[in-house]
């Protein structure tokens, strides 16, 4: 019942639909009480030899009309209640998707993709079942049981009714016991399903790596273990499921046995008529559905409760970064500034960045270089405000980043991350992702600036070529350049290229950088790179080491310092000369 209470917000929003649907259910239950009474009267008429043809035709006609009326009303309650549950499923899916799009990277570092998919594919349908089958069985079984018992007590015999109900306490105990076990086991089964989903997702996305290291058999074996665990937990759920119906069947069988035996005695003693006994057994038959429905209700509610718990655990998660109460929604200048900026990832023992200070004026380019793990990408993600930041340490246009609305900040920045994620769509769709209204001419222009023009000639369908999931049909350099084109199409005031030229050759890199300087004159650009030629033209270059700035200056100034930058630049130039 707790699950239904937790869904009360939805029932209140759609109270008309559920009220009319349940009203049809109640009316059906009342009409179902007429056939046993009519048939019981016919049995008494046959026994007394008083049944006439007109009376028989009248009874048959009434039963036929009842059948047609029940058919129509059953259609209506199914349409209303099941339709309402489908609306709930859609609403929950929309809420879940919107919630996931608001969450920050720290959330996804804690949650597995497989678990999130399991909630969407398994748990939400289980909650939908609660809103349809659960509401149906709750309303129908309680009302049907109540009205049937009232008729059995008042119209037949209260002693016979009471005797037939003797086994019912055992039904209540067994369903409560099975329900508790089902809740626990179904929750564990859903967790196992999430693990299996996660394994499949990682195997499919990493299939090239699996094949490169000849780990197909090992991965199949690992999947077998995960799937066996999922099977075992689902079988444990099925064992409890399998106990519901036989238990209820046995208890109902005892009720029939008591009713028939004691009822026969009452007929012989003339306490009730034969027709009353026939009607009583038919009324007792009407109780079979509510009894089975009660067990089914416990099953559905426990499954829905376990699934609702998993969904609620996601909904209570709040994004680490949110807009302030009255955020600033516009930024006039493109100046980027850091003042003794220090940052540590959630749960980390030491800061990833320490005392970062720089000022990048409008129209200038900032180069960020350093060893792997020195904090280059962390600084870029910090400028996007993906994590909680130290207040008053990062500024855009003279405004602290935390005071800017997220939409205003990220709308001002074009970002090309290290991981070049392409969608399973056409090249044109991927480039126009951030600007769907872009014309074909604008898309082609962005691709030319990213040096993809000649590559398009290799594809039979040009920009309409589908790239496959994550751009599987493209080379690393092509994926990088399409990602750069996507950012260039936005023509953002601030452009961040996070090691986005690593997969292209030196000549292509030089062409892209030349286009950037020409097209982005007067706009701010930030480039992180391992290949120092990518930042050679920058107005300011920062060299990071273990999260700190160890060198700074222009290319000429850093070469004159004869430090890490100069040594690395000379080595790369030598390697390039040898390769050339």
TrEMBL record:
Membrane topology: Multi-pass membrane protein
Domain ABC transmembrane type-1: 20-303
One Pfam family matching this protein: ABC_tran
Keywords recorded for this protein, A-Z: ATP-binding, Membrane, Nucleotide-binding, Transmembrane, Transmembrane helix
Principal location listed in the UniProt entry: membrane
Keyword Transmembrane helix: yes
Transmembrane annotation, as ranges: 20-39, 51-71, 135-156, 162-179, 248-268, 280-301
Domain ABC transporter: 336-571
InterPro entries referenced in this protein's UniProt entry, alphabetically: AAA+_ATPase, ABC1_TM_dom, ABC1_TM_sf, ABC_transporter-like_ATP-bd, ABC_transporter-like_CS, P-loop_NTPase, Type_1_exporter
Superkingdom in the source lineage: Bacteria
Signal peptide (UniProt feature, chain positions): none
Protein name, entry field: ABC transporter transmembrane domain-containing protein
Native source organism of the sequence: Brevibacillus brevis
């Amino acid at each position: 019942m707790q699950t239904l209470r937790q869904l009360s917000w939805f029932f209140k929003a759609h109270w008309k639909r559920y009220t009319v649907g349940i009203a049809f259910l109640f009316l059906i239950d009342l009409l179902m009480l007429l056939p046993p009474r009519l048939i019981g009267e016919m049995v008494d008429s046959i026994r007394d030899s008083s049944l006439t043809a007109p009376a028989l035709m009248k009874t048959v006609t009434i039963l036929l009309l009842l059948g047609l009326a029940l058919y129509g009303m059953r259609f209506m309650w199914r349409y209303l209640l099941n339709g309402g549950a489908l609306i709930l499923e859609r609403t929950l899916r929309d809420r879940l998707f919107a919630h996931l799009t608001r969450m920050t990277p720290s959330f996804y570092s804690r949650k597995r993709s497989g678990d999130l998919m399991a909630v969407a594919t398994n748990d939400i349908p289980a909650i939908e079942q609660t809103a349809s089958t659960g509401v149906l069985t709750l309303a129908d079984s309680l009302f049907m049981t109540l009205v049937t018992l009232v008729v059995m007590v008042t119209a037949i015999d209260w002693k016979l009714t009471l005797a037939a109900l003797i086994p019912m306490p055992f039904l209540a105990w067994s369903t409560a016991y099975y329900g508790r076990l089902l809740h626990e086991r179904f929750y564990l089964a859903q967790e196992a399903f999430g693990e299996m989903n996660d394994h499949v997702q990682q195997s499919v996305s990493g299939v090239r790596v699996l094949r490169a290291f000849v780990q197909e058999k090992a991965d199949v074996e690992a999947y077998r273990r995960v799937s066996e665990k999922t099977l075992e937990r689902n079988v444990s759920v099925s064992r409890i499921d399998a106990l519901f119906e036989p238990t209820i069947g046995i208890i109902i069988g005892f009720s029939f046995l008591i009713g028939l035996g004691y009822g026969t005695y009452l007929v012989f003693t003339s306490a009730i008529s034969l027709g009353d006994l026939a009607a009583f057994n038919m009324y007792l038959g009407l109780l079979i559905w509510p009894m089975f429905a009660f067990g089914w209700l416990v099953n559905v509610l426990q499954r829905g409760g376990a699934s609702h718990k998993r969904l609620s655990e996601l909904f209570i998660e709040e994004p680490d970064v949110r807009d302030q109460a009255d955020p600033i929604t516009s930024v006039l200048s493109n100046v980027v500034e850091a003042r003794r900026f220090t940052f540590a990832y959630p749960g980390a023992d030491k800061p990833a960045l320490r005392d970062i200070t720089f000022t990048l004026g409008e129209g200038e380019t900032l180069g960020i270089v350093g060893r792997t793990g020195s904090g280059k990408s962390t600084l870029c993600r910090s400028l996007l405000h993906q994590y909680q930041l130290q207040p008053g340490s990062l500024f855009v246009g003279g405004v602290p980043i935390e005071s800017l609305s997220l939409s205003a900040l990220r709308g001002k920045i074009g970002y090309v991350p290290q991981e070049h994620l392409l969608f399973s769509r056409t090249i044109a769709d991927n480039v126009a992702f951030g600007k769907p209204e872009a014309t074909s001419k604008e898309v082609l222009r962005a691709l030319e600036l990213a040096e993809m023009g000649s590559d398009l000639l290799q594809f039979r369908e040009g920009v309409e070529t589908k790239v496959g999931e994550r751009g599987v049909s493209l080379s690393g350099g092509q994926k990088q350049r399409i990602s750069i084109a996507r950012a260039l199409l936005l023509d953002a005031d601030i452009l961040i290229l996070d090691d986005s030229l690593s997969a292209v050759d030196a000549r292509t890199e030089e062409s892209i950088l030349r286009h950037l300087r020409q097209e982005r004159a007067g706009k701010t650009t930030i480039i992180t790179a391992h290949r120092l030629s990518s930042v050679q033209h920058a107005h300011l270059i920062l060299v990071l080491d273990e999260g700190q700035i160890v060198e700074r200056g222009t290319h000429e100034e850093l070469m004159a310092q004869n430090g890490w930058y100069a040594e690395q630049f000379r080595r790369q130039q030598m390697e390039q000369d040898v390769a050339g």
